[in-house]
Structures are given as C-alpha cells and as structure tokens.
Amino acid sequence: METLERILVQHPFFKELGGDYLKLVTGCASNVRFEQDHFIFREGAEANEFYLIREGRVALQLFSPERGHITIETLGEGDILGWSWLIPPYSWHFDAKALDLTRAIALDGKCLRKKCEEDHNLGYEVLKRFSHIMGQRLESTRLQLLDLYGVRS
Amino acid sequence: MASVLESHPEAATVCSSPMLPRPYIIKRVRKDTDDTFTLELGPKDGRSHFSFAPGQFNMIYVYGVGEVPISICGDPSSSTLVHTTRAVGAVTKAMAKLRRGDIVGIRGPFGTSWPVEQARTRDVVVVAGGIGLPPLRPALYHILAHREAYGKVVLLYGTRTPDDILFKEELENWRARFDLEVFVAVDRATSGWRGNVGVVTTLITKAGFDPTNTIGMIVGPEVMMRFTALELIKRGVKPEAIYLSMERNMKCGIGLCGHCQFGPLFTCKDGPVFRYDQIKDLLVKWEI
Amino acid sequence: MSTQRLYRIEPDALNELIQSLRKQNYTVIGPTQRGAAIELDEITSTSQLPIGKTDEQAPAHYRLKDRTDGAFFAFSAGPHSWKRYLFPPVLKLFTSRKNADGVHIAEEPPATEKEELYALLGVRSCDLSAIQIQDKVFTGGAYQDTAYQRVRSKVFIIAVNCVHAGGTCFCSSVRTGPRARVGFDLALSEVVDGEHYFIVEVGTDRGEKIVETLTRRPAEDAEVEKADHLIRAAAQLTGRSLEPDNTREILYQNTEHPRWDVVAARCLSCANCTMVCPTCFCATVEDTTDLAGSEAHRIRKWDSCFTLDFSYIHGGSVRPSSRARYRHWITHKLASWVDQFGTIGCVGCGRCITWCPVGIDITEEFRVIRETYLMNRGTGLNKE
Question: In C, residues 91-110, which contact B (CB 8 Å cutoff)?
C-alpha cells in the first residue's frame, strides 16, 4: 500500500489530492498486469475501474463486421485509461487491448464513485481531473478527425 | 523585421538571372506512397556538389508545365540532390510522371534554415506531420553526422495511416540507434497496425528531453504546427526555442513576386523556417 | 539643389529637348491623350503632349477638360505609371527547348540597346518616389530583377514639378512632393501667367549635357520664385491627405476592425488599384509551350493580390474573402512595406482612388482605422 501511494502521488493526476483523499484513493488501488493481446475491458461490459498505465501500451478499439478491430487511439506509460466508470450508464464504450505486456495500477471505480457521492468535495476533485483528461482526448480526437495530412481536392 | 535565422544568399545560383533554372538530370525515381515520390538529381553541367543548408528549398521547373517550391530533403553532405514531393497540382503531377534521364530545372537553394548550430549542446525535438518529414530530414542528417555536439535527439512523426509513412526503412534504422528516439503515430490505423494511434502531439509526453534546454523543429499542416508548438510550450519549451517551416504560394522564390507574403514576412526569404515567437500572433490571425 | 543650375526655357525648347534625346537614341515616353484619358506612350514632338488639357479627378471619376492657357502639364496622374516601362506588364524570361539530348534553357536575350533606352518626360514627384521605391524592391535585396536593373540604369528622367493639385492626390501629406528633390536628370516647373516658360533644374551631368543643346538662359530669381510659389500652393491644395506615421501599429493591431466588412461590401476585387498603382510589384509567371512541345516559354506578368488564386496553396486560398484581400493590400501598402523596405509603399498619386470603379478611397479607409487606434491609445486598448 505504501509503495502504491508513492507511485500515485508522483503522477500529475493524483499529485495534489492531499493526504486524506490520497489515502482513500490508494485504498482502492491495486497492481495489475495484462499479457500481450489480452483484453483489459470489452465494449458494453460494466465499467468499475480505471487504470494508471505504468508500463506497456494499450489500444482503444472498436469492432465492426466489415473492418474488424479498428484502433482509435493508443495509450501508454503515464496515461489514464477509462472514464466510463464515472458517467452513467457506467459501461465501457470501447474495447481496450494490451498491445504489449502492460503493468498498471487499477483503481476501484465503483468504490470511488460511492465515496464521491458521500463526499462532494472528493467528487469535485475527481471530476476536475477527469474533465481535464476528457478535454485533452477530445482535442486530440478532433485533430485526428480533421485529417490534416489528407489531400484536399 | 527580417528573420534572425541563418540565410544563405551566397549559396544560390550564380547565373545571370536568378529566374533562370539550371538543368538537372533525374538519376533515380522512387515511389514512396500512392501520391508521394522521390527524385534524386545530379547537375547536367557536371558541377558535383549542391550546397544547401537544412530547411532550404528549390524552385523546381518542369519543362513547359511550371515551377514549384519543394524542400530539399537529402543529406547536405551528399553530392546527390534529393526532393520528395506529393503530387497534388498540375506541376507536381507532371513531375510524378518523369523518369530517369529526364531533365528538370533547378533554382536555389533559397530561404532560411534550421538552427542546427544554435541547437548544439541542447536536446532536439523534431516533430513532423505527414509530408512535413522531408524538410526536416536534412537537419536530422546533420545532427546525426555531428551527434556528439547535441544532447538527446527525438523524432516524432505523425501521418494519416500506416501506408503513408515515408522513409520506412530509414526510420527503422534510426529507431534502432541508441542515441535517437523515434516515435511514430497514425491518425487512422489499418487492421494489423500495432503502432501508436493518435495525433502526433500526444507523443510529446512520451519523449525524453529537458524542456528547459531544448530546440524544437516542427513541420506539418499549419493547424498541426500550431497545436504542436503549444504542446511543447505546455511541456516547458520556450517559444523562442521552437521553429516552424511555413508554406505559401510562390512564383519566384526570391522575394520579388509578392505571392508568399505572410503578414509582412516573405516566406521565401524571411522563411520558410521561422522562429515561433516571431510568428505566433500571425499564426492565429484569419486569412493573413 | 543650388540655384546655379537653373535655366529658363520657352515652350519651343521643350521640343528641342525631345529631339536632342531622340538623336541620342532615346525613346521618349510622355503623357499623351488617348481617347478620354491621358496615358503614357512614345512621343516624337511636343505636339503630342496633351497641351491645354486638365483633368478632373475624384473617387471613380476621371474627366478631361479643356483649359484656355495652353499649359503643357496642367493635369495629374493618369491611369498609366512609369512602371510600364521599367517593369513591363509582360516579359519573357526565358525560352526552353527540348530535343534529343534533353532540355536546354536559354535566357531571353536582352532587347537591343535602342529598345530599352527610355527618356521619361513628365515624371511627377510622386511617380519619381514610386520609381525609387521600386528600385528598392527590385534591386535592394539579395536577389535582383536583372531586367529592371538593365532598363533602369539607362533611363533618362525629366521630372515635372506639379503646379496644379489633383483631386485625389496627396503627395504633400506623405512627403513625396509636389517638388521633385532627387533622382532626376532634369526637372521642369511650368509657369503660365501672361508669359509661358519653364524653369529647368539640372540634376545630373548627363542632364547638363542635354540642357546645353537647348535654347536657354539662366533663370532670374523672380522667375524661379514664381514657379516655387505655384508649387507651394499646389502642396496646400491637394484633394486628400494621409498621415503616414505609426502605420504599422495602426494596421497590425486592427486586423478585425469592423471597417474591413464595410469596404469588403464595396470592393469588387477587380484589381484596378494594383494595376494603376505605381509601386505595386506583384507578378506571376506563366509557362506555355507550342503545340509540338518543342519550345516552351516562361513569361512574367503583372499579378494582383486581389485575385482569388494569388494565395492559393494545395486545395485552397489563404485569403478567400475579398475582405481579407483588401485588408492585405492596404496593410502591405502602408504598413508591411515599412518592415520590408523601410518606407511606406504609397506615394499619394491618387490613382487607386480615381480608378476604383466604386470609388474606394485609401485615405478614407486608413483614416477610419487610424481614428480607432488614436482612441484606443488613450485607453490602453491597443495591444503592446
């Protein structure tokens, strides 16, 4: 638990949470490991956790009958994976597959959700951080959408 | 308001008129992707070495069709003149049909160059988007040829899809080096692609460099360059340490036709390489 | 210029001047009436000058009127400027030929000496400033326009000091006239006041040599003073004015001024202003081949930043709106030019105002923006 706390506090996401909240979050954390090509979560499944990737790479994918598995985005060391646990209906929107052997810290989202309902200050801190991540993902996705490198006819 | 960057008028053509091209023979043609191709050229009159600074461009004349500005993308120490071009308009499409032995006209080299001298002892982050990689290649060659003069060197390269990756073999060789970090990301994956997917700015957090002692060099579509510069600044790189290469319509390449004006700057002689802090206000103005 | 090289000549001597120049193989270019306007063309005698003509100029308005005094130069700038000769509208740059051993590129041989030897008669001070401005553009940078240099180095300039103010011009406010100060071989001031004579000021040794072939006598102080008085009066009476200071701050800090929408609603992007402007220098190149493909020409032509294609790069123009193109033109002319060449690019000739079909007035547009700048300056609203 102590080691986990030390790792979490170094990450910009958890850094300024403050003593009590940090302990609380650490209490919901555990080390996990995914083998290469293993699916971390599947589209439609219940979203109960999120991950801080410590090593390896994860591909966010969608499966379509004509095109097979399509990778939308890849995440790596230092990235936060998963925000669907925070927003109803709390189910995953994408598949997540470990492209390489991936080590991460898993955080119990269900538990954290409950605690955010009880303590709105904690809820605010958590939502602040996630909205920042979602904003960044949205900006990146929009740039991808622009197809900047494509040729205009 | 002339650029503080290195400019090299003395390296240019010594012809009677700077509007007169010199004939160059195509020694080799290589098709890189669907619409991108590379020409390797040598002078018809036998002068052996085309001297240029990384970041400069030539005006390439296709007989009877027209002239376009194309960045020089070969090794500055080599005797072969190399141009990688995307066939998008009348002239470049005609260029794409040329074969070994055909002749093109060359005027140049023109324009300002990458700050490879200024970057000595510092870390270097090179960010290329799409067809932005060719203009940065000469800088990388120069840096790698004087590797001990630089700190950490990182190349971040974003393209549309895996099929659009240029210079694959060269990139793989570079990636295998221990003194160079290479990250590639695509906007859109094809099935079977196991590399990074996402906009190239997301690679910046993955690269190891000291932002307080880094020179950044960026080439790509203007939107991509704007966002990449902001991302580097967010990371701590100073605006005066970031350089972009701009593109505008050019008819002469020598500051006389007026077409390439970007605000008060002539892209052909005050650029194409500009320091970010000197153009950041122009970049966000519409239709300027 | 000292009073030592000032002469008085009678109108007939002006014809002697033209003939002296022609004898030295100059092609004399001067103002001459063509239809309803005074244009520039080759003249072989003073009879071809628009004697007794004056012009009435206002936004989108140009009319020739008759005078009763037989003055030779009682009009202002017409639609032509001297750049037609120094920087021709169409110029072949080179010819390339394709044969069995490849492509050969040959520079267009310079015209024969005679074809490029011009004497420009009647260059107003504003236009003289314009020539000096184009000198900087074409020969002041790292790369020179060799064709311009060739013609320019041989050209003989006879300036004319304006003694009549034009309806749209504003040389005095931008400090380019009405008196020509430097850069001429000879300068003439016309006095029509009971008697009709010219004061000739010599500017170069070459000018002195030509003057020696004319019927002349040294000018008397009173005669010179009469001419000076007329020139001073003209300076006060110009139709418009433009304050040329701080143009960079004024225009760079007001790229989103609502005035741009107002002028955009009027501007037709017809490019007349750039064609008549004596300092506009934008050009394009065209490549053409003959049907057999054996010979290709590269031709340089005047171009205008008002065309949609001007700023075209892969898939679109950088300035698709006429709003942006007008803004670009006036910003370049009054502000960017300072950064690029050290002075503003406008000489106050008024042509763009007269020849704009909808009468857009550069001095008026600039005035509106300038007023905003002055207002904001007090309140700290201006950036930096």
Answer: 93-94, 96, 98, 102-105, 107
